[in-house]
Amino acid sequence: MGERRTLILLRHGRTAWNAVGRAQGHADVPLDELGRAQAEAAARALAGRGPVRLWSSDLARARETAERVAVATGLTVETTEAFREYSVGDRTGLTLPEFAERFPDEYAAWQAGTAGVAGAESDADVLARFVPALRAAQDALGPGETGIVVTHGAAMKAALAEVLGLGVVGRDALGVLGNAHWVELAHAASGFLGGEPRWRLAGYNLAAPGAPTDEPGADFVSDQPAR
Description:
6-stranded mixed sheet, disordered C terminus
């Protein structure tokens, strides 16, 4: 199969807004205590993979997670706006009940999938910035090398479906990615049974053994906008 290239997409650790379901988007929310512990556990586990490059969203929760990976690996964090989460516009800082109370018409349209939220990014907006940066990270890796991208749940899932050719149906079939969990993409020099070599999904929603967590699914609301 040849020496494969590996790209790991790591979601940031938990924040206080994650814990109560506040929409974060581009808000610069730091990790909470649990999130810092999650990031440190992920950093220790991923350091063992011998990564050679480390990229990150420039938002605080991703950057703080990446900084812990940098300490564990000796790498320098390369930050970019391209790996940011969806901007959530008027939803920023609101829980779903608060959004429904403050913007009832927009909430109803958003729940029905018939209209966007004022100031929010569309799928096309996010893919236009995220996918080229993701492909550049893939191309930057040589045979046998591993890289890490620290980013956000919803934007990651949309870009992942795009680069794997899964489409919207395939994206929606992917489960929620936990805080400080990761996705592994692998590319071999030759494909299975002589097939065309391509990037493939090698692992999804992976976590460090014994990593601290809270209730399953309780942390995703702010980063996984409903469709």
